[in-house]
Every structure is written in C-alpha cells, then in structure tokens.
Give the backbone structure.
Amino acid sequence: MIDLSSDTATRPCAAMRQAIAQAEVGDEQRLEDPTVLKLIERTCQLLNKPAGLFLPTGTMCNVVAIKTHTNPGEAVFLGDRSHVLRCETGSAAVVSGVVMDTVAAERGAFGRPELEAALYQPSHYSAVPSLVCVEQTHNFGGGAVWPLRKLLEVRAVTLERDLQVHMDGARLLNAVVASGVSAATYADTADSVWIDFTKGLGAPLGAVLCGQSDFIERARRYKHMLGGAMRQAGLAAAGCLYSLEHNLDRLAEDHRRAAELASFLASLPGVKVEPVDTNLIFFRVQERDSEELMLAMEQRGLRMGAVGESIRAATHLDISDQDIVKAKAVLSELL
Ligand SMILES: *Cc1c(COP(=O)(O)O)cnc(C)c1O
C-alpha cells in the first residue's frame, strides 16, 4: 500500500529503533530521564524558548497550553478551520471552559485586519478575550505556510491588547524548510509553541511544548492532571531526537514530491487542486464521488484521506520517487 493518507503513516526505521533500544532512561515525571531532558533542551534551542515540556501528543500540547493560558469564560480567537476547533473533540471548551471565536482566514491564515475585525472591547456582556491561536503550517488551509508578515501583525495586535499567542506547530518545521525562515523567528511571534515529532519527522510518538519558564511550570501541573506525566519516556524521546537529527532537512524531498504529484493531478481532466506549499495536497474531482474514488484507489494499492468534500494526500518519509510514479499510474487509470 502506498499510504498518502497522512504524514503520520510512517514506521520507525532500523536506525531509529536502534536509537530507541539504546536510550538512557529515568523517571520522566521526576525530571530524571536524561533523554527526555536532552530532547527538551534541543527543542528549546531550535525554537529559542527558555523552557519546554515533553508530552505524548500534539493534541495534549494544545489542550495543556490553552488551559495554562486561559481562565474559564474567556475567549480564544482562532481560524475557522483550525485543528483546535475542528479536530480536538471540543477539548478547549471541556477542559478550559473557553469560548472559541473564529477569525476569517485565507488558507488558514489571518493578519491584523481579520483579527481586529473579530476582536471586540470586553464589557460585562462579553467573554474576555485572552488568547489567539495560530497554526503553522495550516493543515486544512492546504498545508499552507502562515506568512511571517501576518504572524508579526498578529503579534503586534496581541501586544496592543494584552493577549497571549499560542502556536500549533505540528508542521512548523515544514514551514521552516519551505520558507527559509528559521523556527526561532516563527516561534518568536508566539508565547507558546510546540512541534510534533510524529508528522514529517517520522518518530512514533512525542511532542514538545515550549514557552517561558513560569508558563511551562504551570503547564506541568496540567500535564500531570491529564495523565500525561510519564515514566521511562526516554524511549520515546530517543526516537524524537533521532528524527530531529536525521529527518529535518529531508522534508524538502517531501515538498518536492508533493509539488510533482499536485502538478500531475492538475493536468488530469476535472481535477481541481489547491495550491501546495509543503507536503499536503488537497484536491477535488468534478462529478466523482470522493468515497467511491478513494475506494477504487485502495483496491489498486493507493490510500488517501477525506477532508470534507476534498481528498487529501500527504507525502512523507516512507514515500519514495518510485511510489509517486506508481501513484500517478493509478490516478491516470482512474481519472
Ligand atoms: C496532527 C495535528 C495536531 C495533533 O497532533 P497529534 O500528535 O496527532 O495529537 C494538532 N494540530 C495540527 C495542525 C495537526 O496537524
């Protein structure tokens, strides 16, 4: 099966498994796991933030960060197709008791005008605005890079209005590789930011949330509260460290393959492809039921995923040039 359904569809390679097997470990929740501590240090360096927290998933990073930034009854501003709003089971409402207020976005991203249009002066009628969430790259925006200019505008508005910014950086490193802007420069536009090691980097589990030291100390309580405090988690962190050392620069290959597949798709009759910035391709096929089409693909050894009316294909570590050739052959046959 050529699995383009997600960039999480990777298996740890032999060398990564070796690194995992040989990891030095300790008790993570007592801050005694040396491999976890090393991973946090590396991630803090990459993002130029003073402190970090190792969590099992990116979703838990968002849940913990929003809980740490807000009080119940406050308002969080985010894009109408953001992962926090669409894919996290309403956790911000349940765990943090916040109102989620949407901001108009283009390919997932907004800047000063859109944010200012959504914000309001708090009164005794309203929820109190406290946090803005951004997402880099933006998944349902088409894997789009949130332009630095717009992130700087968001930062400026939030400083003027005394709001915090949280960055969902599940694919921040794809944005770095695609744009040439450093991870630290992007991270500087937010108070908290996390990266996922299980997307393009290809580790089996783990994410690190970074921010100021007092923020991370408060976040640690919520990590524990949600059951995210672990024991010999260095096994997982070793996979993350390996992925950071070996799989970062090669993200450019995923982007090249995605661009190639996207331009091929665009050449087929009745196929409308969204612009591709990174490793995600979203497309629609006129007068074809996407479920039926994806089933036919699967029968021919090609898997993609449905996102609403669109089909999403993600390139990743386990997809080769040869796989792209085969995928094109299947698509030619079906379309
Ligand atoms: C995958 C993803 C998450 C959640 O990460 P998990 O590690 O799967 O929990 C959050 N935000 C975005 C944009 C994602 O793509």
About this structure: The chain has a mean pLDDT of 97. Residues 57-59, 83, 135, 139, 168, 170, 196, 198, 207 surround pyridoxal-5'-phosphate (CB under 6 Å).
